[in-house]
Amino acid sequence: MIKAKINGKPVEVKEGTSILEAAKQAKVKIPTLCKHEDLEASGGCGLCIVKVKGMPKMPRACTTEITEGMEITTHDAELVNIRRTVLELIMSNHPKDCLVCARNQDCELQRLCAEFGIREDAFPSIVHRQPHKKDDSTGTITIDTSKCVLCGRCVQVCQKVQNVWALAFLKRGIKTELSPAGEIDLQQSPCVKCGQCSAHCPVGAIVEHDDTQKVWNALMDEKKYCVVQIAPAVRVAIGEAFGFPVGSNLTGKLNAALYELGFKAVFDTNTAADVTIMEEASEFKHRLTHGGTLPLITSCCPAWVDYMEKYHGDIIENFSSAKSPQEMMGALSKTYYAQKHNIDPKDIFMVSIMPCTAKKYEITRSDDMFSSGYQDIDVSITTRELARMLKQSGVNFKEIEERKGDDILADYSGAGTIFGATGGVMEAALRTAHYLITGREAANIDFKEVRGLKGIKEAEIDVDGTKVKVAIAHGLANVGDVLAKIKQAKAEGKEPPYHFIEVMACEGGCVAGGGQPYGVTNELRKARAKGLYDEDSSMQIRCSHANPAVQKIYKEYLGEPLGDKAHKLLHNHYKARESYKG
Fold first, then answer.
1. For residue 503, what are the β-bridge partners?
2. Domain range for residue 20?
3. How confident is the model at residue 582 (pLDDT cuts 50, 70, 90)?
């Protein structure tokens, strides 16, 4: 432990702690723009400078370790003036179009400028980035380099956390720009549309592609029968935009608000998650008991699917063919639901509310996404987009009374709701796989060994004497180690090291997806996940196969898991992208 003083008060912290973190532990807030809890400190912005007794220079608190006996001053008149000057210099190279920026009132630079009382331009404007650099080529995220503050967060999360390397800094000095390498469009880059760059950007340089007007237009079209589905992670994050405690589960309020917006039916993606488990667990059982290709790898995450097709086409045979819950619900809405209510499926307009920017890409990823005969999902919007719509609508979200969703596509099990957290898909699948393999429920369906925020989690589950080895990876940089073990075993002709693998592109899973409210930290990830696990533990039905609504869907329409109709509507095909091999 290290003893030091911050602003004259004694502190004691672990060796290796930065001044910034030590100040935080001492309840002292040092302003930053480039530092994010998920990322390594770069010292890029210079706002966190402090004074240290006996040190001639002012070190940056985020990159300087606290040492024994150090006496630190974090705030005085000189430091405030220097920080204000740093902000004024940043603003001299930043557009002043806050009113039309997607991050207006939710921007870290805007907040800092307000806190430091910046009311006029102290320096001539030197904005050199051109408007034509705005890149919306993926249809999932939008990059406007004129707003970039060169903090480096997006580059670091793309390269080190996600191992995608779609973004980099080009040129030097005052001409430095954020761009895909070679100044190509993002669509031509390795980008997998996960949106973590937008989730970590402190300003409006990278934001989700806004599709809310498409939804408003559909709601105003009397010829359209508008329906909507809510993903598991959305319900425990939307409240942050309206002052609810982090992790509050607001399913009932969401249902009511969406009906108020004008949707004819509100479905729950959790229901489709239960259907996903029926297909995926059946697939796993078949492979495990009939000598099929193992390990089976989950396919719910579209950013992971994109990554796999680009970089790991040699493991396509290991991929589950089951569609994501979003896509399964889309197909069921325009077939089963349309048939039950005698609605022409061409009139159904399906909107999905997802925690994820990659879901915008998934809805047209391949012909499989048109299995109903129409585009199964018409528009996918993020949690952030939904929050804006609710605020525009005049719905009093805090006071609105809860309401149930649709009668046939909104009843779900606890297994369906935990899909939103890393390890949740695996746990839900194990509950049902155990039942399908043995004919009885597991003695304990809480597979807690697959929960938590460790980057790679491994466990061995006993299924009636068979040791099932599983792995869970979240954050794409963690996937490589897991896949390397598989490929090495295959090359050496050995048994695979795992039987079942879950992958989520985003750290923490969907609760921290690229379309969730800004400012995510591990504490927020834990609180949002807890909201899902709390609902699961409180539910009477906690296994997908025991959900009466799902049983009814199979009995009345799908037939049996992995049957002909289920394959047509609920399963994918994959294709390796040759240009990304190597």
1. 473
2. 2-75
3. very low
Residue with tokens 């006071």: 399
- Please check whether residues 453 and 435 belong to one and the same domain: yes
- Same domain? 191 vs 319: no
Strand order in the sheet with 466-474: 296-297, 500-504, 466-474, 456-463
Three-state DSSP class for residue 415: helix
Say whether both 376 and 519 belong to one domain: yes
Q: Please indicate, yes or no, whether residues 186 and 234 belong to a single structural domain of this protein.
A: no
**Phi, psi angle pair for 559, to nearest 5°:** 90, -105
CA dihedral 86, 88, 89, 92 (to 10 degrees): 160
Length of the chain (residues): 582
- Comparing CA positions, the residue from 263, 186, 278, 177 lying closest to residue 227 is 263
Is residue 495 in some structural domain?
Answer: yes
Q: Tell me the residue ranges of DSSP E strands in 269-342.
A: 296-297
- Single residue among 208, 228, 251 that ends a domain in this structure: 208
pTM over 0.85: yes
More confident residue, 577 or 299: 299
**Residue 28: CATH number of its domain:** 3.10.20.740
**Sign of the alpha-carbon dihedral angle for 395, 398, 404, 409:** positive
Q: How confident is the model at residue 580 (pLDDT cuts 50, 70, 90)?
A: low
Is 498 part of a structural domain of the chain?
yes
Which contiguous run of DSSP H or E holds residue 266? strand 265-268
The mean predicted confidence, pLDDT, of the chain is 95
Contact 267, 229 (CB under 8 A): yes
Predicted confidence at residue 125, as pLDDT, reads: 83
* Residues 204 and 236 both lie in one domain: no
The number of folded domains in the chain is: 3
DSSP E strands in 129-262: the ranges are 141-143, 168-170, 177-179, 206-208, 225-230
